[in-house]
Amino acid sequence: MTERVVPPAARQRRRPTKQGVVLSEELIVATALRLIEEHGADALSVRRLGRALGADPSSLYRYFRHTDDLMLAIADELIGSTMRTWRPTGDWVADLRDLGLRMHAGALAHPRAAVLSAHRVTGRVHEIQAVESILGVLRGAGFPEYEAVRIYHAFVDQALAFGALDSAGTSLPRAAREAETEVWRTTYGRLPADTHPHIAASARPLVATMRTSSYPAALELLLEAARTRLTQLRAGTGD
After folding, report:
1. CATH numeric code, 8-65
2. CA Rg, the chain, in Å?
3. CATH class of the domain at 87-235
């Protein structure tokens, strides 16, 4: 795609596509998201998208300047799908825990797109809503602005990073995933105590826990650190 996007008011098609649908940003993003999960990053081509939509590929320029513009829209839609299901309750720790777990689950629901988009900043409506909402939760809890931004930054980057990490793992062929999981039992679980005393002493929990994502545990550690920081600020003992 090139820099030829059409203003929003002029985007509506007068005729349906060959498949009888009218193009829209929402339809293009949904179709691109589906194709990414089926074919990976190669799905973001004008020709492939046009074929999937039953539309002339050039018609996509009416909605997106180029494929990276479309990628940002996809990233923003992943954020939007999470924000649409999240309802804050007023308990800031519970609300951030719930949102973080929803973000992680959303990434696993679209693993290839999550890997491609986790590092992007969209500046679009859903991302703006997410930034506003999370900062609102933190400021409402009593964090001053600098601390709220600091914790927001750590919270979001943690969720996105784990989402991309775990999504990349799910994208491996099943045989490769199972083989890597078995390494914890067949290799680490059998190392002798005389050469690897700490691994040998920890073998049982290693085998039990290293098969699953550590995001819930990491999230709890972050929230506990944030709660401790807020206590320090209220007591006037924070730097």
Report:
1. 1.10.10.60
2. 22
3. mainly alpha
